[in-house]
Fold this protein.
Amino acid sequence: MSYCVKCGVELDDSAKKCPLCDTSVYMPNADVSAKDAPAPFSQKKVIPKDAKKEFAASVITVLLAIPMIVCGIVNLFYRKDGFWSAYVITSVLLFWIIVILPFYLRKIRPYLMWFIDTAAVLAYVYIFFPLRNENDDYYLTVALPIIAAVSVCVLLFIIWARGKERHWSAILIHIALDIALISAVTGIISFYYSVSWGMIASVIVFLSVLSLMGFGIYCNRSKKVRAWLEKKFFI
């Protein structure tokens, strides 16, 4: 067990620099094997080869199918409030497409999943308008622009993230910026159609993500803060 000579932080045997103050570590009595030992917390995420993703996904699929079947059967005998089971069925299907479907793919293809998820959300939202007795104009003028803004932000994030390995603080800034843009688009549309609750929600979200973005920028510029957060929360 060793400690930093400057700030006193406990160091592991493979440390080259202090994670808090960046002071170089010198341990003359350490053996060669300890100096060449890999870092205790590897940055590489490895999924075991024997992990059965398809089996787990199939079990979850069966569990999700149960409420869909039950609600559909009950709705056949109880139609006083219309086809209310469509809300449950479409919501479960959307969750399955976004969360469970990737487990069946041998290799994750971000652009393919982005296209499938966007199409699923568009279809999901469109199904709700006949159930709520809304016309297509509301879908085209309100829902479609918001979904398009979300889809474009997600696509830009995928392109940006796949370029090279990104630090968590940079990812936080990018996600906060995307949410701010989406909330701004939602606020403009809500203002145009005089939807008061939409404007209020957009302002609250916009101001919240601005503060989150500021925290991310501060962490991105300060090595000491990043090192402290990584040491305390393993991020």
Q: What stands out?
A: The beta strands are 2-3, 10-11. The mean pLDDT is 81. The chain has eight helices and two strands. Residues 1-46 form one domain.
